[in-house]
């Protein structure tokens, strides 16, 4: 066979296609020009030679993670063992992450009250949260990273109550403060925060630094009351929940240059607690106030002051269980089909 | 012959190599009573064992490069009861340990070693990284009248984590897939015990004081099917000489070299009377 040197050569960018030899498009197009590879030059990529001196690293085998848990992973823990969920609510920099990190950091030295450390699947998250309060950060005073916007994540701590020889897990929900504050203008937002209706203790923070500041003091009261009201309006509070109203940064309040300012800040906090009890006392199983200093700045105040009592409150037997247990067992139906329903729907007691 | 497995773990420079060196000498020299005895000179990684034992005898510090890779040392042993077995001793490099904590992964070749029923975990008794807090330091500085200058803040890195946190995480990983292997025996060896025993504490009490989070976890968090025992191990007996030109000869090393029976440099403490028997933790792990 003689080929016409003047005839245009057929090119195709698909290396598997032999159209130049057999006239058939490997992609099956009857009209080769319809194929996207037809007429395009084949790109030849030179194979890279493996460098024997540089072995290719083999991917390692994945081990369990140690970062904060997404909701689905927290759900698995909830199903698996006795668990207390703690939601922490307050504006940006009110000390939410400090409280979570504070409990973990106290366990680094000893038991906290009756609670001993019994494990965690979120050790990287805890360590990251604690870093800026430790000397390894090279900071001159403790600092807390801002929680990123997005869905709530959960810090996990297994705790053993040494007085009762039993273990209980704490799941701390961590969401950025602004997301909670936004509910004051739009309570419906709270409906998309599942930790609010699921938590055993709703913990609302009042920032001690702001209580010292005339221009911000009244806003603290507003933030506390309006946020709880927004959650209630959105149907996200439960009558079996505990409410903790926490004055954070008590070290800063005590350190105030003017003693009168310090006393006024504490009095204002007491008024906040009284207002909360007045308005929401019957909406929660218990309302209790705490004054804490999770990570004091400077040389005043004990690190972890007040945290022991707060942890004990968080880890109490959830009222949720008492609420469920107090339900009277439904009267068995006379008819056989009626007796099956509670079992099928999972509503049966016991 | 039946093969028994014990995995040796620990952070870099936690005393694993010195232990192996002293153990090999003790088994070969047969000068002190031991619960396990070597049957033969032949061993897996025998050359490595001989090299490190030679340095140990000369009271010289082990070179860092001696422990830069994972090795499986095997020794043919016999117990006091006459049972013969091969002791496989995967010696996992400290870097593998760091990979587990920092990168959340482990090499496939380390994986099978980490499922051994016996775990010998080394912790250097006086090289424990504590969690130091700015608030506590500020108080101390005020008390001492010190002003500390701080530079640029340093972002978080997993390697900053306190020793006890890294150890708790390792134990957690050894109980969960893919490393979980059911009930195990865990011997914790507090190495360089000669530097710590001045506290007049038992090894367990020392661990409780210096690694309280780990101590709480061992008592309340570890799977109940695990059995734990804490040993204080002094495999050197004193500070050994370094190789560097500028390294001053150590008086402790000299005194160790002067001892008639080198195996008597060794001290193993488990709360009862001390002994020179470095095979004690191994014997307990194989029980």
What is the structure about, briefly put?
In chain A, a hairpin with a 4-residue loop joins strand 4 and strand 5.
Features:
A: 350 residues; Rossmann fold; 2 domains; 15% strand; elongated; disordered N terminus; B: 287 residues; 11 helices; globular
- Contiguous runs where pLDDT drops below 50 for at least 5 residues of chain B: none
The number of distinct β-strands of chain A equals: 8
Largest sheet of chain B at a glance? 8 strands, mixed
Order of helices and strands of chain A: HEHEHEHEEHHEHHEHHEHHH
- The gyration radius over C-alpha positions of chain B equals 20 Å
Low-confidence stretches of chain A: 1-7, 325-329, 338-350
Number of domains of chain A: 2
Shape of chain B: globular
Work out the helix count of chain A. Answer: 13
Which strand-content bin applies to the residues of chain A? Answer: 5-15%
Label the structural class of chain B. alpha/beta
Layout of helices and strands:
The complex is a heterodimer of chains A (350) and B (287).
Chain A: H1 19-22, E1 61-62, H2 71-80, E2 83-89, H3 96-107, E3 115-119, H4 123-131, E4 153-161, E5 166-174, H5 177-181, H6 194-198, E6 201-207, H7 208-211, H8 214-233, E7 242-248, H9 250-255, H10 259-280, E8 286-291, H11 307-314, H12 319-325, H13 336-344
Helix pairs in contact in A: 3-4, 8-10
Chain B: E1 2-10, H1 16-29, E2 36-44, H2 46-57, E3 71-79, E4 84-91, H3 94-103, E5 105-106, H4 108-111, E6 118-124, H5 134-144, H6 163-173, E7 185-191, H7 193-196, H8 203-210, H9 212-220, E8 227-234, H10 251-258, E9 267-269, H11 280-286
Parallel strand pairs in B: 1-4, 1-6, 6-7, 7-8
Antiparallel strand pairs in B: 2-3, 3-4, 8-9
Helix pairs in contact in B: 1-2, 6-9, 8-9
């Amino acid at each position: 066979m003689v080929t016409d040197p003047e005839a245009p050569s057929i090119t195709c960018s698909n290396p598997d296609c032999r159209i130049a030899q057999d006239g058939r498009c490997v992609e099956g197009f009857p009209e080769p020009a319809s194929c996207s590879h037809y007429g395009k030059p084949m790109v030849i990529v030179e194979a890279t030679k493996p460098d024997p001196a540089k072995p290719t690293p083999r991917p390692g085998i994945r081990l369990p993670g140690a970062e904060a848990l997404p909701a689905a992973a927290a759900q698995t823990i909830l199903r698996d063992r006795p668990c207390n969920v703690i939601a922490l609510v307050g504006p940006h920099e009110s000390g939410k992450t400090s409280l979570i990190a504070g409990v973990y950091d106290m366990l680094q030295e000893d038991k906290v009250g009756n609670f001993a450390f019994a494990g965690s699947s979120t050790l990287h998250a805890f360590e990251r949260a604690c870093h800026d309060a430790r000397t390894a950060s090279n900071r001159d005073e403790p600092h807390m990273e801002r929680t990123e916007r997005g869905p709530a994540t959960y810090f996990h701590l297994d705790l053993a109550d040494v007085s009762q020889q039993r273990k209980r897990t704490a799941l701390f929900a961590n969401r950025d403060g602004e997301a909670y504050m936004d509910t004051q203008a739009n309570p419906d937002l709270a409906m998309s925060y599942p930790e609010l209706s699921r938590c055993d203790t709703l913990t609302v923070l009042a920032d001690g630094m702001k209580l010292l500041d005339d221009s911000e003091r009244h806003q603290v009261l507003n933030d506390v009351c309006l946020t709880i009201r927004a959650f209630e309006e959105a149907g996200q509070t439960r009558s079996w929940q505990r409410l903790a109203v926490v004055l954070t940064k008590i070290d800063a309040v005590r350190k105030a240059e003017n003693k009168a300012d310090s006393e006024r800040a504490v009095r204002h906090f007491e008024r906040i607690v009284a207002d909360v009890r007045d308005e929401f006392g019957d909406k929660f199983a218990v309302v209790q106030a705490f004054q804490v200093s999770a990570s004091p700045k400077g040389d005043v105040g004990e690190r972890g002051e007040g945290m022991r009592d707060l942890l004990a409150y968080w880890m109490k037997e959830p009222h949720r269980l008492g609420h469920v247990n107090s339900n009277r067992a439904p009267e068995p139906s006379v008819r056989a089909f009626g007796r099956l329903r509670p079992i099928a729907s999972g509503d049966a007691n016991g | 012959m039946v093969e028994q497995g014990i995995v040796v773990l620990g952070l870099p420079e936690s005393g694993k190599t010195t232990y192996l060196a002293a153990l090999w000498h003790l088994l070969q020299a047969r000068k002190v009573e031991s619960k396990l005895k070597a049957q033969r000179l032949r061993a897996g990684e025998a050359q490595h064992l001989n090299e490190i034992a030679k340095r140990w005898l000369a009271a010289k510090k082990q070179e860092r490069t001696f422990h830069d890779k994972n090795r499986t040392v095997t020794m043919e042993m016999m117990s006091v009861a006459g049972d013969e077995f091969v002791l496989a001793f995967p010696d996992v490099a400290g870097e593998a340990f760091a990979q587990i904590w920092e990168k959340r992964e482990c090499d496939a070749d380390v994986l099978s070693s980490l499922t051994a029923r016996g775990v010998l975990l080394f912790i250097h008794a006086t090289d424990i990284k504590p969690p130091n807090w700015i608030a506590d330091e500020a108080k101390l500085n005020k008390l001492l009248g010190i002003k500390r200058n701080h530079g640029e803040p340093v972002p978080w890195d997993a390697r900053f984590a306190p020793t006890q946190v890294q150890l708790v995480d390792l134990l957690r990983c050894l109980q969960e897939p893919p490393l979980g292997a059911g009930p195990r025996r865990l011997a914790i060896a507090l190495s360089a015990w000669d530097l710590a025993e001045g506290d007049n504490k038992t090894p367990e009490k020392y661990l409780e004081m210096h690694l309280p989070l780990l101590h709480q976890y061992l008592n309340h968090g570890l799977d109940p099917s695990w059995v734990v025992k804490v040993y204080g191990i002094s495999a050197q007996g004193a500070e050994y000489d370094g190789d560097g030109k500028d390294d001053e000869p150590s008086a402790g090393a000299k005194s160790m070299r002067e001892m008639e029976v080198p195996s008597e440099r060794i001290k193993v403490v488990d709360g009862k009377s001390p002994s020179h028997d470095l095979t004690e933790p191994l014997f307990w792990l194989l029980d």
